[in-house]
Amino acid sequence: MFSIEAIMSTDLITLPPAATLAEARTLMHTNRIHHLPIVEGDNLIGLVTLTTVLAATDSFLRDQENRIHAAEVLVKDVMITDIATIDEHASLRQAALFIEKHQIGCLPIVTKGVLRGIITDTDFVGVAINLLELTEETEPVDQEYA
Description:
By secondary structure, this protein is of the alpha+beta class. The chain contains five helices and four strands, in the order H-H-E-E-H-H-E-E-H. It has a two-stranded antiparallel ribbon. Strands 3-4 form a two-stranded antiparallel ribbon. The radius of gyration is 19 Å and the shape is globular. The model has no long low-confidence stretch (mean pLDDT about 85).
């Protein structure tokens, strides 16, 4: 069956705390991701989400001279620091239940303080699709609908 290690993303795109909100927004857009771990070395210290970026981005409706520019805001000033994480040896069921219970979009995988990967709600959709396909392969074909 599936394990956390089997579905977690390990080719992570991360930022240091001194990066700007503009850099975070560009990385998210370019890589089509919604979660950016903020790291010092290999250690996870924060998380910036698309929601964080949108909330911290000033409206273009504000006049130019009073507008806060994303290139002037550091991710360390807007990142989430109270991050829910899970160990890579935890069960996939535990991870799924945690994501559902806390209504979060991602769960960083951290072992002994080191960021090892990340699981997102999208990863769980992939697991569900695979399970549905397996179920369909083992179900008898109903001639009426074939």
